[in-house]
Each structure stands twice: as C-alpha cells, then as structure tokens.
C-alpha cells in the first residue's frame, strides 16, 4: 500500500480522512507550519499508520508545489497513492467586496493554488486516488458569498475536466461537493439546510475511494449528502431577483 498525503493536515476534513485511511501505510500531514498536529499524529499511529511525518508548505507559493510533493514522497519512503487536497480559506465576503488584496487571496488559495497542486499530483502520481473539494457554494453564486463561491465554481469545472483526462488511467479523481460543513472554518455561522459535519464528508469520500479501488480506479463526483443534488437543481430555478437575497 502506498503513502497517504493530506494537504491541509490541520483541516477538519483532512484529519477525518487521515483517521480512516491511515492503517497500514505511511502518512504525511502537510500544512502551513508543522505546529498543531502532534495530537493527530499520535492518533494516526494508534490507528495503524506505519509512520507519520509532518511537512510545512505554503499553498499560495505555487512555485513550490512540485517540490512539496517530492518531499512528501521522500519522507514517506513510498509512492503517494492517496492524496487529499484539503487546504483552503473561507475568507471574509464583506472585506473582499472592498479590499481587492483579500479577494485575490481567496481566489489564490481556493482556486489557483488548488489548480496548481492538482496538476502536479496528476502529473506525478502513478496510481491511486486524488481527492478534491468543491462545494454547493460553487453551483450558483450567491450575493452573500460570491467571492468564495466563484472559486468553487471554477475549481469544480477544472475537476470535471481533470477527471475526464484521467479516465482509463490508473489514477482517479474523487471530487466532493458537500453542503455547508459544520466545523472550525464555519464556527459561529448559522448552519444552512442539509448541513454536514466533517466525519460525514470523510465517510462518503472513503466509501467512494474504496468502491473504486479495483484494477482500474474510477473518478467520481459526490454530492454530500446525496439529497443535496435535488436542492442544487431547485436552486437553478429560483428567479434572480429572489436569488440575490439568499443567505450564505
């Protein structure tokens, strides 16, 4: 079994996926700075990881992405066969409407850096699964969070194309489209309808990975929960004058 790489090692969903996928393999937790991952490291070792390594990387420094992946494989001592791209920021919509630098930061981390990292992973990895995270926020941009939503819309389109590119190869892309995720990133915010928790998202992703782990893995796009897909189609039908007043 190859190595597991979590890009966004302190993220709620990244941690939940690490717990579920670590058994019998080396794990690399990559995040901005190596602090704050000691507890998760110990837990992964108790859960059966053969080794756990931490790696510092700056998602916004796209020129370093290929080197980060090479360092991760070196630390693990094995090829990476499962890579989870779980870094990102929610940002402040109100600030982004007036502060072009903040709007750019959101776009850089949540779209451009994701495109860069996914491109490197698809180029370097020989087999296995890449996991990326889109969102219902990208399905139809809302006035309340259009900056963040626009990055997810672009990322989702990129992932659909990348999945088609990987079709028939030994590498598959799992694209998760969760609804509102109740966790540290959304702490203090009122949950939206069909909200999920990180463990629910992780379990759905693990199930997809395990179900497509045959001789030729299959790329999949997941609505989490599944009923969110029906809500998404309804969203498309809401008249724009009403839609612009919808909350986050």
From TrEMBL:
UniProt KW keywords: NADP, Oxidoreductase
UniProt-listed Pfam families: adh_short
InterPro entries: NAD(P)-bd_dom_sf, Sc_DH/Rdtase_CS, SDR_fam
Superkingdom assignment: Bacteria
Family: Belongs to the short-chain dehydrogenases/reductases (SDR) family.
Designated name of the protein: SDR family oxidoreductase
Species of the source: Corynebacterium intestinale
Lineage summary: Bacteria, Bacillati, Actinomycetota, Actinomycetes, Mycobacteriales
